[in-house]
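Bug report

Summary: structure tokens for T9SS type A sorting domain-containing protein differ between web form and batch submission.
Environment: batch mode, default settings.
Steps: 1) Submit the sequence below via batch. 2) Compare with the web form result.

Sequence submitted:
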Amino acid sequence: MKQLGRPLLAAASMLAMACIGTKGYAQCTGGYTSGDLTISSACTISADITITGNLSLLNSVSLVIDPGVTVTVQGDLQTGYMAGVLNVSGGGTLDVSGRFYNDVRTATSFTFSNVTVTVGNNGGASTSINNFTSTLSLLNGTSFTVTAGNFENDNGTSLTIDNSSLDISSGNFINDFQAEAIVQNGGSLTLSNGNLVTEDQSHLLVDNSTVIVSGDFNNDYHALLDVQNNSTFIIGGDFNNGYSSGGEVTAGYVNIDGSNVNVGGSLNNDYGSDINIDGGGTLAITNDLTNDQAATIDIPNGSLIVGGTITDDFGGIGAPCSDGCCGNGCVLPVTLIAFDYELTGDQVALNWTTASEVNNDYFTIERSLDGQIFEYAGKVAGSGTTDVPKNYYWQDERPLSSTTYYRLKQTDMDGTFKYEGIVTVDYHNPEAHLAVSPNPVSSGKSFTVLGEDLSNKVWEIQSASGLVIAKGTFEQASTVTTAGMESGIYLLNIRSNAYLKTIKIVVE
């Protein structure tokens, strides 16, 4: 264990300031000029301010940053000794050049609610820390971005990301000894260029949320990963379960319940480790799987899909395997690999393709003006059971008079059904039709999305089995990489609120 310590607050050089204002006071930092700033009582900041030193919070302060207001901190954001219960809210922005430091050995509780926070870690030279036994909560749509450097959830701490996001742009996330990290209620944890490490006896819970790790994931000694309730967990590199970043073989535990975990590299389930896949969940591995001695993979109800070689010399996989898939969830009733449209004059023609079908009775086409309330528009017979690709076509000869959302519903022979996707058609604006180029695209190369405005839209790539293997936004560029994708057919889904467009991508 590393030596724990508390940063010394140089009182002689600090312009200690107890804010005497209450919520609604025009500018509770009035009188501040330069250097460090301490806020120690209820405070509202209603105009932009730059703090040239550190910003320290203590005495269970409640800080409100009004919407549209930016507080710029050129030093660190930190909590003072025995800081108590701290709250930052209000809809504004907190831009910190240094690091975030939730102080040590004081059991500080720090909550961010409905604010935007960026932390620079001094350009990556520092590490932001939720320190020993402290609590950090990101709530109500908070966006917390670490632009450079690492973020550590230290020994015995608790981190909750609830309907909010923690984005680490270029660094690692460490969930340390006996620490707990919870991502829930549509929250997200994203490591754009780094690794995820869960240390000794820690717990990472992902509940109805998303975790994306561009690098490797090491789940250390007796560390527990729970992915449940329709969550998505994407690992771009290797997943080492029960293998520490220092190279020691330990025992890690993973529960996947009704969720998808996708590994872009290989999975090493080391000595004594256990993985449980239940509730129709899926663990998909692009490359190889090695299940070591005394390691187990239990699949009561779900599927384990492996693109490379399965090595299970000690028979620890508790389900039959065939063609790289283990478990009872390997056969999907209908595998949709394309859903698109064409414009012929004022008429709209929908076309879609399935790779395989099991007991497929028929498709229903529904349409809507707002993407929320749909009405029946047509019906096309299915192909029953087949493993041969099938092409389907339906034409709306009397389309609606404005932008229209078309939804595809698939029904089995026993009456069960599911919705396969949505396309958005503006037949008065043909330029709104999206396309990709090149297509086919070589594995490892990038393709460009062409057509309408992509701002405020997100993308995801699904494999032919329906697994989400990559996702992102168009904020930086309209290009998408196929790095780590093997040859085959994929679906590119582009979303924004009610909008959804699906394009078939062929990787060679």
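Above is the batch result. After comparison, the two runs are identical; trailing whitespace caused the diff. The first strand starts at residue 15 and ends at 16. The two ends are 48 Å apart (CA to CA).
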